[in-house]
Specification:
By secondary structure, this protein is of the alpha+beta class. The chain contains 6 helices and 3 strands. The radius of gyration is 13 Å and the shape is globular.
């Protein structure tokens, strides 16, 4: 459960990937890579996507789904719906 009171900023996301981690985690991710980044199973990521929880974080091309790393991280950390679900699981 997060104790963060304010949204994660773009500068904070940039800083998180600035130490060379950005090369290991490219800015565009497939489903497996995005799931690995978030520490969830690809099926969980698909369920969130199909449920509309990740709108604006991905694009579909040629039958594949690609996630924008920074948008995905910001969405997961800043989206109230996601945070509410995590709070319910912790209770």
């Amino acid at each position: 459960m997060s104790t963060r009171d304010k949204p994660l900023t773009t500068a904070e996301i940039d800083h998180a990937f600035a130490d060379g981690t950005g090369q290991a985690v490219p800015p565009i991710l497939g489903t497996k890579e995005a799931a690995r980044l978030l520490g969830v199973k690809p099926k969980t990521l698909d369920l969130w996507k199909n449920g509309g929880r990740l709108d604006g974080t991905y694009i579909k091309r040629g039958g594949r789904v690609f996630y924008w790393r920074d948008r995905l991280v910001a969405h997961i950390f800043n989206d109230n719906e996601m945070n509410d679900d995590q709070k319910q699981k912790a209770e």
